[in-house]
Structures are given as structure tokens and as C-alpha cells.
Amino acid sequence: MSQLGVGIIGTGWCGGIRAVAAADDPLVSSVHVAEIRPDRLAEVAEQTQARTATEDYREILERDDVDAVMISTTPETTHYPIALAALSAGKHVLLEKPIALSLDEADHLIDVAEQQGLTFTIGYSQRFNDKQALIKRKLTDKTLGDPVSVLVSRHITRKLGDKIGGRIKLSPAAMEATHDIDFVLWCLEPARPVRVYAQAVERVMKQRYDVADCMWIVITMDNGVVVTIGAGWILPPGYPNFSATWMEVVGSEGALFVDDSHRDTVLNTMNDGMVLPISTMPGEDLGHVYAGPMQRETAHFLKAVALGRPALVEPRQARAAMEVYLAADLSAERNEPVTLPMGRQQQEQALAASVRPA
């Protein structure tokens, strides 16, 4: 088994996590980092003992000793062109969600990856959340019987909402509910979504960023299962980038309730009062261990490339999740259900409603 040269393009919050995880992985022989902020580039290069560090990601793609890249760039408009350049250069790719801004772009990336015979996967890290993995297992092994309904409620703080809304117009459906859309569609395969109805609330973020505060989405599957997913990003500021999720899965033979609200660990200090550590979606470095799913997802990608195994998140699954959240944005704007798959005109209307730059 040969080791890998790995490039990390974009070393912000998520990219920094992936860079450190790659540097610590025995499957990795060298780390190469690209970041447009010189101070952050120097910081991550030192943390990871990177072999090379550059402000131009194309220098990484030109290297013969780089086998795979992880793309964690913002704004999200950069995902498609950088991923396309990486795949065209023959690199295996892990791309943070969203896979692209349009279904045409997603289809193009998938086609290029397949033509090149490359591993191409999308960063849906919540598939690597141990609590959610239990849901997948209990549906797969039929402990719950036939699925009947799924409910997911996810909320993050406005600190993250400000960060996302301030860089591009992408809705809570596209940036938060997308994790749950992907996860539920994966759990319910081979069932497929056929209808989407959504409602958005616009009271806090609308005037500043032209995005909704939260969105509630009802998805009807072709086998009659009903999925309800709510996502919002206006909780008061919390520590650290607090995320809280509640999930209910009801089947013909049982039900599973998952509390992932991070209320089980409370830190109380004289300086900061009561806070909820270990509460971010990607997870946190605790020194000798990493608590959270993103490190596990990164290790999985590296192993998939090194051993020639399939990655857990197939790009066509990411495209399916994308079509659902685009339909949700269109439904919320029109105040009417949207039937899937969307036609060309609906796709164009959904794109116009969802992803105009701020």
C-alpha cells in the first residue's frame, strides 16, 4: 500500500481540520496547502509541517507527487472551477458541500470524474456522526421495520449564519438542511423523492443578507414515506459555533429518537459562565483525540483513495440532495409544491431563487 501526497486547498475552519487530520494520517506521505490569506497559510503550514505552501492552488495541481486534494474554499462559487481543475489534472477529490451551484455543474464534475476513473466525493460529514450512523444501521437491518416518517430539526447560531450569509446568497436549505437531506435520502434508498414543499421565515437575516432565517421542508418519497426537515441559523451566539439537532425516525416496527443537541457536556467557568463545548458539527480537537465526524470523514477519504475502495458519499447522491434543496428554495419562493425531477425551466428558476451572489 503506497502513501499519498495530499493537497488541501482552502485552510479555513473546515480546511484546517482536514489539513491536520491528513498530516496525522499514516497513509499520507506529504501535505501541501494552499490558502489566499498569508497569515493563515503560515499557521497551517507550521501545524502540518507541510512540504509546500502556496497562495495559488494551481501550483498544487501541477505537482506529480500530489495524488489527492481536499477542497474547502469559500465562497461556494469557487467549488466548481477548482474541483474541475483538480479532476482534469487527474487528482482524486474530496469537495466540501455544495457539490456545485447548478445541477449542470454537478453533472459535469461527475462526468469528468467518471471519465478519469477518479475518486470524487462530497463533504457530507454527518454520515460519519456516530449517532446518525445508528439510524442508518437500524433502518438497514430492519429493526425499525419499514420506514414511515422522518423528522429532523437542526439549528445553528447566527455567528455561523452571519459568516455564510455574508459571503454568498445560499439558503439554510442549501447550507444546513443539505446535510440532513443527504443523510435521509441515503438512509431511505432505493426510495426517491418525488415532491418537495417548503416554507421559509425571513425576519432577521433578510434585510442584511437577503437569506431566510430558517426553512422547513416536507419531502414525499415515491414509496409514501414523508420526511420533514427544518434548519435555521439565527440562534443567539453560542460556544463554539453551537449546533443542535433532534431526529425522529418512525417505522412500522419501532422508532428511534436521537438527541444531538450537545447538552450532555456543560462547562461552567467564572469568566464565561455556562457553555456547551464539543458542540460544533465538524467536531473539535481535544488533544489526543478528535471529537466529531470530520476527522473520520477525512480518514475515510484517504483510505478510499489509497486502497481503491468506493467513497461513502457518491457524487450522484450529492446531486440528488442538491436537487431537493433547490426545489425547496423554489417551493418557498412560489409557496407551492415542486415535483421532482425538475425540468430545465424549473432548474433555471430554482437557481435564480437560490444562489445569486450577495
TrEMBL record:
Top-level taxon of origin: Bacteria
SUPFAM superfamilies according to UniProt: Glyceraldehyde-3-phosphate dehydrogenase-like, C-terminal domain, NAD(P)-binding Rossmann-fold domains
UniProt-annotated stretches for the region Disordered: 339-358
InterPro entries xref list: Gfo/Idh/MocA-like_OxRdtase_N, Gfo/Idh/MocA_Oxidoreductases, GFO_IDH_MocA-like_dom, NAD(P)-bd_dom_sf
Domain Gfo/Idh/MocA-like oxidoreductase N-terminal: start-end pairs: 5-124
Annotated coiled-coil segments of the chain: none
Domain GFO/IDH/MocA-like oxidoreductase: 177-256
Pfam families (alphabetical): GFO_IDH_MocA (PF01408), GFO_IDH_MocA_C3 (PF22725)
Alphabetized PANTHER family for the sequence: BILIVERDIN REDUCTASE A (PTHR43377)
Protein's UniProt name: Gfo/Idh/MocA family oxidoreductase
Organism, as annotated: Salinactinospora qingdaonensis
Upper classification of the organism: Bacteria, Bacillati, Actinomycetota, Actinomycetes, Streptosporangiales
